[in-house]
Design goal:
Order of helices and strands: HHEEEEEEEEEEE
Radius of gyration: 29 Å
Structural class: alpha+beta
Helix content: 10-25%
Largest sheet: 8 strands, antiparallel, barrel
Length: 212
């Protein structure tokens, strides 16, 4: 009888230890979940970050030659990239081509939010930058900014592999008017701000960039 009581007590102690261990383990798991939720909720970050959109549509900041870009149902190949820097501020322009004669430019910058603009060169126009407003095809564009920047290029762009350029930009709502000079005079282009859902990027296999 004495041994039976001892055995029962031992079993009860084992059960008690197991219950306490399970309770402590469950409490630790709940605390870990709460800490993870708190970190996700209160960690420093940009609440307007486009990271989720980039995961679905591709990150335009990472464009490189040979990537494909679908814009409003038209597929373009990236033939070249120009990267600009001005006082620590960076942006890019991508030279696009459908392969059937249609060409365009895509500028990508964080200002501070992501801004992607599709550009078409304007040939044969006599517009010159400088005035506070510019009239073009019935639209009045207001001066936005001007300056100069250093650049490097990769792929086919029509400009040197490196150098400096000047720019003078105007805007009217979502429309843009830009003048750029790479050393041979002002060249004009008209642009249209793209919404995030209007384009999608299909990256090519990673490859080192270089002039061609």
């Amino acid at each position: 009888m004495k041994y039976a009581v001892i055995l029962i007590i031992a079993l009860l102690l084992i059960i008690a230890v197991a219950v306490v261990f399970n309770v402590l383990q469950a409490q630790a798991a709940r605390k870990a979940e709460a800490d993870a939720l708190r970190n996700r909720t209160y960690r420093p970050g940009d609440p307007f970050s486009s990271a989720d959109d980039d995961a679905v549509h591709g990150d335009p900041r990472q464009l490189k030659p040979s990537d494909l870009v679908d814009i409003r149902g038209t597929t373009f190949a990236v033939r070249g990239i120009i990267r600009f820097t001005q006082d620590g501020y960076n942006w890019i322009e991508a030279h696009l081509d459908t392969g059937t004669g249609r060409r365009a430019w895509l500028s990508v910058e964080d200002d501070p939010d992501l801004e992607v603009v599709m550009w078409q060169d304007l040939s044969g126009v006599t517009l010159q930058p400088g005035p506070p407003t510019v009239e073009f095809e019935g639209r009045r564009y207001t001066f936005d900014e001007d300056g100069s920047a250093r650049f490097t290029s990769a792929g086919t762009t029509g400009v040197a592999t490196s150098g400096s350029m000047r720019y003078h930009d105007y805007q009217a709502g979502g429309d843009r008017l830009s003048f750029e000079d790479y050393g041979s005079g002002w060249e004009a282009a008209r642009g249209e701000l793209l919404a995030r859902g209007e384009f999608r990027i299909y990256p090519s296999n990673p490859a080192p960039e270089g002039p061609r």
